[in-house]
Specification:
alpha/beta, 85 residues
């Protein structure tokens, strides 16, 4: 299952539901964990989906860059990343 959102905290998903997921940026690189941003929209939605679909292999893409902005280019890169896989 592919999830694309502004930010997903891998650590907080694991804390909430006890399941590890893969979280990358739109280019396939690992992302930095931001402690202050753990319980935002992307993390909560990912946790709900991961709990509902327990057997799913989940890869989440966080789209924030270092300035916490999301560009259309990043969204397109995320779609292309999953399209290749």
């Amino acid at each position: 299952m592919a999830i694309i959102d502004n930010y997903i905290s891998k650590n907080e998903v694991a804390n909430l539901i006890g399941k590890d997921i893969t979280v990358i940026d739109a280019h396939g690189n690992s992302i930095k964990e931001y402690k202050w941003a753990e319980m935002i929209h992307g993390t909560v939605c990912t946790s709900i989906l991961a709990e509902k679909f327990k057997d799913a292999n989940i890869t989440a893409v966080s789209l924030w860059d270092s300035h916490m902005e999301i560009s259309l280019e990043e969204v397109c890169s995320a779609f292309q990343l999953f399209e290749k896989k």
